[in-house]
Amino acid sequence: MSFAEITVRRFVKYTGYGNAAGLLATRGLLGGQRSSVWSSGTRYSSDSDSDTEEYRQIKDKVNPVTGQVEEEQPHPTQGMTEEEKEEEAHRLISLFNKLSKDNVIQPMGLNREGQLVPLPELHDLSVEENEEEDELHEGME
């Protein structure tokens, strides 16, 4: 099958988003301009028609970004008690708060017009919560 015979969906399905974008970029094809080959109106079989039996068996394990087959991973919280899950949630919140405080990430929200805007009050709130939490821990020691 030649490059011209492939639909975009089939191309991405078999290579993954990242690999497809990389190939198109190296060939200078990411500009959004369609060549006459792509717009010739030629119809090909649907993507589902092109599925091989082997692909159908592993379809749910294919990473759409890399195109690689990944083994099933156990759920990250499997085997954790509710207390351990809560501790992990607090740890993750603390990490996100630190990233926000260090200006590595910036929490965003939507305003009434649907535009992304910074959420400085979220940062302020998390700092206050951390101070209260520190006071509680100091009182327990």
UniProtKB/TrEMBL annotation:
InterPro entries: Chaperone_Ric-8_A/B, Gua_nucleotide_exch_fac_Ric8
Single GO cellular component term: cell cortex
Principal location listed in the UniProt entry: cytoplasm
Region feature Disordered, mapped onto this chain: 34-86, 121-141
Keyword Oxidoreductase: no
Pfam families reported for this sequence: Ric8
Biased composition, class Acidic residues, residue ranges: 127-141
Annotated GO MF terms: G-protein alpha-subunit binding; guanyl-nucleotide exchange factor activity
Stretches with biased composition (Basic and acidic residues): 53-62
Localization (cell): Cytoplasm, Cell cortex
Keywords: Chaperone, Cytoplasm, Guanine-nucleotide releasing factor
GO biological process, one term: G protein-coupled receptor signaling pathway
Record's function text: Chaperone that specifically binds and folds nascent G alpha proteins prior to G protein heterotrimer formation. Also acts as a guanine nucleotide exchange factor (GEF) for G alpha proteins by stimulating exchange of bound GDP for free GTP.
PANTHER family linked to this entry: SYNEMBRYN (PTHR12425)
Family: Belongs to the synembryn family.
Subunit structure: Interacts with some GDP-bound G alpha proteins. Does not interact with G-alpha proteins when they are in complex with subunits beta and gamma.
Name of the featured protein: Synembryn
Originating organism: Danionella cerebrum
